Amino acid sequence: MIVAAQDRYQRMMYNRCGHSGLKLPAISLGLWHNFGGVDVFETSAKMIHRAFDAGITHFDLANNYGPPPGSAEENFGRILRRDLMAYRDEMIISTKAGYYMWEGPYGEWGSRKYLLSSLDRSLQRMGLDYVDIFYSHRPDPETPLEETMGALDTVVRQGKALYAGISNYPADKALEASQILRSLGTPCLIHQPRYSMLDRWVEKDLLNVLESEGIGCIAFSPLAQGLLTDRYLQGVPDGSRAAKPHGFLKKDQITTEMLSVIKALDQIASSRSQSLAQMAIAWLLKDHRVTSVLVGASSVGQLNNNLKALDHLDFTGDELEAIEKILG
Ligand SMILES: NC(=O)c1ccc[n+]([C@@H]2O[C@H](COP(=O)([O-])OP(=O)(O)OC[C@H]3O[C@@H](n4cnc5c(N)ncnc54)[C@H](OP(=O)(O)O)[C@@H]3O)[C@@H](O)[C@H]2O)c1
User: In the structure, which protein residues have their CB atom closer than 6 angstroms to any atom of ligand 1?
Assistant: First the structure.
């Protein structure tokens, strides 16, 4: 077991998640990349330790995180049991089901059959009795929403999850899901959409729906998988996500036009005495509807850099205008 930093709760800001009783750290840590079987276990462990010491109470997983799928949950479970189990009640651990996990008709999407089996497997891999949040990872165009939401309600009633969440649901489906969940007596705690300076689809309708339904919002890929950092300013470094065969960021996404946007944003960040990553996080947190920003990291150094975003969250009108001009 490790002894966590005494001052960890003085270092972080906590925001209420929608109309719920739950507060989440302004910055949460995601285990999609860099915590799998292909990664260096002790580096993953150090990032979890550092995050918890900095007041990051929320760790986000999914059944398929790795690679190989499931290995991020196994590694997180090992780290938890070895180092941090004494702090389980101070942590919000989430997992999800929705993407492909196993063969046959019950290994993905949104059936009750898949969601319930998948959560059991996730709990086994992590060595936990319950997760704090269980998500439907994506809407299923073929399964009735009542069935998918019914499965979330069931796992909460079983005590295998404390709260229910949805991810990647468009605004209309999110509203419908929220109404169903409320009618079942298990309100939707949170929505997890992709949201960054480079991907603003949530601003059209979704954020308003979440606010009016009292649902929190946790923004994933806030750094656009590393594009909104200094990572690719001088080419594609070895070991970066874009250089990895299993990375979801592809080299061809780093176009000349993209680089000119990133460089222009980086200049504004410099004028604010911030890194681009810090400015990208602060820019999301300026909206009171965003409960938490869910970052990824491949080193403790990156995590430390991202945490410093909290030192400078406010923007002047001129800065916001200049950013809008660049983002077009
Ligand atoms: N619900 C969903 O469908 C869904 C989908 C995607 C993600 N997520 C969640 O969101 C989490 C975050 O997603 P993400 O990893 O794409 O987030 P991200 O924060 O946009 O990207 C993280 C990557 O950016 C680079 N990076 C981070 N901080 C940096 C810094 N200070 N300086 C330079 N580079 C930095 C690192 O890339 P390198 O690895 O190259 O160093 C890191 O792996 C995931 O772990 C997962 O929990 C959910």
Answer: 30-34, 60, 137, 167-168, 192, 220-226, 229-231, 240-241, 277, 294-298, 302, 305-306
